[in-house]
């Protein structure tokens, strides 16, 4: 079975102490994860080392960075490299979140570079894609998201593509409380998988986890995650509440 993943994206939230308490509360629930299930916490940079040591003895729990730079090293004041993340044992990195694309002008091409560097350092990218409301209203979301995939991922060899996790996050559903219906999510996830299958063949496409993100909550996770092409979620707001996120972890297939 494909990996089913509950990923928390804390964004720019929590003090160090709050973050530590949140992790303690979630890990304290002692949810044992079957081998096809994983939990990932994407925490702010200053908390990576603390968070990584919290999950060190917890099988199938991992820590992610929320971003890294598209250059390997050098005079880029304030940036964080994939090599730095690797050097502290980080295994995942969220890339191309719509907030990065919007506020920091991250392009598909720049994201392709970030993906290559992460893979070089053995870091699994959680590649985010998703359309804005205007595109959804025009009905052209399939082509829009397909282009994001093509321009950032399709240079990857067959041997590497299965190392990517994809997160489909329709922008109109992020932080708005307006979740895509499970039908809308399934439809897009199936489309993305067919686009991947066209490029890489059905076998590889079937192995790639595609997470849904956008107002995932305890009360809609079961229905969303039950859909055949929805392999878990990338969760913002609800991941900041231990009880909510625990319920979301338990909703994994
Ligand atoms: O952007 C998201 C996760 O990366 C989704 O955020 P919300 O769950 O707060 O809508």
From TrEMBL:
Transmembrane segments: none annotated. It is an enzyme of class 5 (isomerase). Pfam families: TIM. One of its GO terms (cellular component) is cytosol. PROSITE patterns: TIM_1 (PS00171), TIM_2 (PS51440). GO terms for biological process: gluconeogenesis; glyceraldehyde-3-phosphate biosynthetic process; glycerol catabolic process; glycolytic process. GO terms for molecular function: triose-phosphate isomerase activity. PANTHER family: TRIOSEPHOSPHATE ISOMERASE. HAMAP family: TIM_B. Homodimer. This is Triosephosphate isomerase. It comes from Paraflavitalea soli. The lineage of its organism: Bacteria, Pseudomonadati, Bacteroidota, Chitinophagia, Chitinophagales.
């Amino acid at each position: 079975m494909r990996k089913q993943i509950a990923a928390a994206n804390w964004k720019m939230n929590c003090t160090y102490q709050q973050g530590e308490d949140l992790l303690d509360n979630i890990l304290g629930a002692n949810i044992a994860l079957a081998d096809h299930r994983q939990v990932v916490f994407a925490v702010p940079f200053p908390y990576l080392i603390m968070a990584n040591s919290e999950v060190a003895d917890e099988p199938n729990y991992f820590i992610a960075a929320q971003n890294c730079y598209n250059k390997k090293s050098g005079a880029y004041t304030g940036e964080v490299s994939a090599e730095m993340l690797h050097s502290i044992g980080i295994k995942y990195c969220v890339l191309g979140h719509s907030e990065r694309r919007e506020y920091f002008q991250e392009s598909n091409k720049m994201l392709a570079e970030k993906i290559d560097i992460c893979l070089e350092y053995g870091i699994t990218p959680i590649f985010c894609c998703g359309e804005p409301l205007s595109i959804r209203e025009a009905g052209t979301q399939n082509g829009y998201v397909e282009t994001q995939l093509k321009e950032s991922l399709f240079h990857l060899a067959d041997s590497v593509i299965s190392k990517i996790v994809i997160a489909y996050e329709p922008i109109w559903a992020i932080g708005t409380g307006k979740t895509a219906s499970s039908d809308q999510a399934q439809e897009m996830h199936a489309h993305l998988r067919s686009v991947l299958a066209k490029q890489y063949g059905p076998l590889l496409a079937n192995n790639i986890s595609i997470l849904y993100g956008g107002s995932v909550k305890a009360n809609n996770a079961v229905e969303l995650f039950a859909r055949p092409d929805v392999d878990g979620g990338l969760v913002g707001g609800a991941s900041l509440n231990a009880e909510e996120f625990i319920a979301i972890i338990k909703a994994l297939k």
